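Hey, I was hoping to borrow your eyes for a little while. I've been puzzling over a protein and I'd love to understand its fold better. The fold is given in discrete form, as structure tokens running alongside the sequence. I'd be grateful if you could look everything over and explain what you see. No rush at all, and the record is pasted right below.
>
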Amino acid sequence: MATRRAGYDSMMWQAPGLGLAAQAFLMTIALHPDTGRLAQVTAGMLSMVVSFMSVQLLAKHRRHELADSIWLQELERTRGLPQVHAPAERRCRDAGMPSKGLVKFRSHQVWTAGLVVFGLAGLATAIVGFVRG
């Protein structure tokens, strides 16, 4: 179970990274001055789709990772085992390391917001490409 949880955690961060790379490529096409109107609209819309897909996959992997984490925490608690799968925030707090600055934001929420912004930029680019001309 711990291996599966770690796998979900790893996949959770691969999806937005690959999505961001795809969006950078699409936005390069969409914003290039020599790009035609149809290509600009298509690249902008594809950027929006990639954003949605990345956010959905991030959320799904997060959900599965969280379910496995809760199961492992409950197993440790009921068996009287050390709480090695306790939430990282609790482990940091117990170690005297309170969250400060940027660290207090949840990474999956920051990445979700960032991917949504890229999707909105793709939509705006598609709209500009559609109305220009």
About this structure: The mean pLDDT is 92. The helical segments are 2-31, 37-79, 88-94, 107-131. The CA atoms of residues 51 and 118 lie 7 Å apart. The chain has four helices and no strands.
